[in-house]
Amino acid sequence: MSTFFKYFFSLIFLPLIIFINGCGTSDLILIKISPSTSTSFDVSGLNLVAGNKQSFQATGYYSDGSSNILTDLTISDWSTSDEEKGYFDAPGEFIAGNTPGTVTIAATKDGITSNTIDITIEIVATPLAITGSTINTINVTPSPVTIVKDESIQLVATANYIDGTSAVITNDVSWLSNDRNTADVTPSGLLSGINTGTTTLTASLDGITSNTVDATVITVMTNILIEPSKISVVKGLNQQLTATAVFNDGTQSPITNSVTWVSNNTNNASFSEMGLLNGLEEGTATLTAQMDNISTTVEFTVTPAEITQIEVTPNEVTLVKGKTERNAQQLIAIATYTDDSRLDITNSATWLSLDPSLTVSMTGEITASDIGTATVIASEDGIDSTQADITICSLADTCIDIFDAGNGTLFTSSPSKIYVDNINPNLASSVTTIDSSLPPPAIGIRLDDGLDGDYSVCAP
């Protein structure tokens, strides 16, 4: 782009764009970068000697017609096309590398990329070759240095001569890493992180050794994995979650107790610092594990509470065989759930008895069929209840303790004639004795048809 055209664009079209966009909100629409020492924004190229530094500034233009220097750019917002030819060691601070050639730089913010500037890197003879001066010291920068594993950073070696002059001698020195398995340096001073750890680096020339640079190789976390990946917890129960850090070299490390657990709905679940999820209410929400500006969000579901136990009451029942008021009994089934709630499930449970002496209705009513013992259980959702123990006896058994015939008279151990007649009048087949010890009228009868034995009866 010619200087005339750049001038024409800046004079005519740029104000027009700013004016048109200024009618709406104040949005960034253009970025222009230039050397900090330049008075013109139309710099498209410059030359730098290897090892030298040049500061750049970025100016933002907004839709309301305003402009300002962008001081909030980070080092990652500044880009270079070839880090061996030049790189940024701070926002806007460009250092020429030790490889001759041309490198292109730019700046980006909010998706807007600036104009580009081409920088030509030149290698010049050192003062030693020109003046014959002797090296006094060699200084390596940066020092100390921290580098990410599998990444690189440019080192610069500067010679300080006894005559007070100095020059970059990065490509002339011999580089030495104390532990090349941790970090290594190329002949041009490019430091690469090999494995995590620490080592020391030096540069030497003409018998002079530089300062010792402490180099630390680290890994950086790039992602967090949450397990299980599909989370479903029953209301009232807990689910242990785990968080694992994934680093840039592919290695992983558990960080469950180090991350911060956050949910977008605290009504559905609570979380402990150890990653224990407790289901509070049914529903779906999200949870996030975050650490060191890295976060991962997953969805979880709290499902309805489930039955943990079923209790049948009463758990001991005595029935009397025959058509009596003690021939049947209603059982009740109460379910306890994972959230500690309780519910009567008598009508929905499945009732079961394997003994033929007893029948059980679908709603839990038991009826004596024959003399003997039986057990009854109720089940729902795959959970079996506690059992009810049932005893079935005859009229002659001691299970008849006190009986009310309905006429205000109580009988103990022996059924009345009215009671027997209500069952089957034919059972009292004959009168065998008269018990004079009972208040009159009193008769003794013998009951047959399976009800063997002599019984004293008070007849009304």
What's the quick description here?
The protein has 460 residues and is mainly beta. The protein folds into five domains: 3-122, Immunoglobulin-like, CATH 2.60.40; 127-218, Immunoglobulin-like, CATH 2.60.40.1080; 223-302, Immunoglobulin-like; 307-393, Immunoglobulins (Immunoglobulin-like, Sandwich), CATH 2.60.40; 402-458, no CATH class.
Radius of gyration from the alpha-carbon trace, in angstroms: 48 Å
Provide the helix percentage.
under 10%
CATH topology of the largest domain: Immunoglobulin-like
Tell me the number of helical segments per DSSP (H or I, 4 or more residues long): 3
Instruction: Give the overall form.
Output: elongated
Largest sheet: 5 strands, antiparallel
CATH A-level architecture of the largest domain: Sandwich
Mean pLDDT level: 79
What is the CATH first-level class name of the largest domain? Mainly Beta
Straight-line N-to-C gap:
130 Å
Low-pLDDT runs of 5+ residues are 1-24, 125-131, 398-418, 427-460
Task: Note the topology.
Layout: H1 3-21, E1 28-35, E2 45-49, E3 53-62, E4 67-69, E5 78-80, E6 86-90, E7 93-96, E8 101-109, E9 112-113, E10 117-122, H2 127-131, E11 135-141, E12 145-148, E13 152-154, E14 156-161, E15 166-168, E16 174-177, E17 183-185, E18 190-193, E19 197-205, E20 208-209, E21 213-218, E22 221-227, E23 231-234, E24 238-240, E25 242-247, E26 252-254, E27 260-263, E28 269-271, E29 276-279, E30 283-291, E31 294-303, E32 307-313, E33 316-320, E34 328-330, E35 332-337, E36 342-344, E37 350-352, E38 358-360, E39 365-368, E40 372-380, E41 383-384, E42 388-393, E43 402-404, E44 410-412, H3 417-423, E45 428-433, E46 442-447, E47 454-458
Parallel strand pairs: 2-10, 12-21, 23-31, 33-42
Antiparallel strand pairs: 1-3, 3-4, 3-7, 5-8, 6-7, 8-9, 8-10, 11-14, 13-18, 14-15, 16-19, 17-18, 19-20, 19-21, 22-25, 24-29, 25-26, 27-30, 28-29, 30-31, 32-35, 34-39, 35-36, 37-40, 38-39, 40-41, 40-42, 43-44, 45-46, 46-47
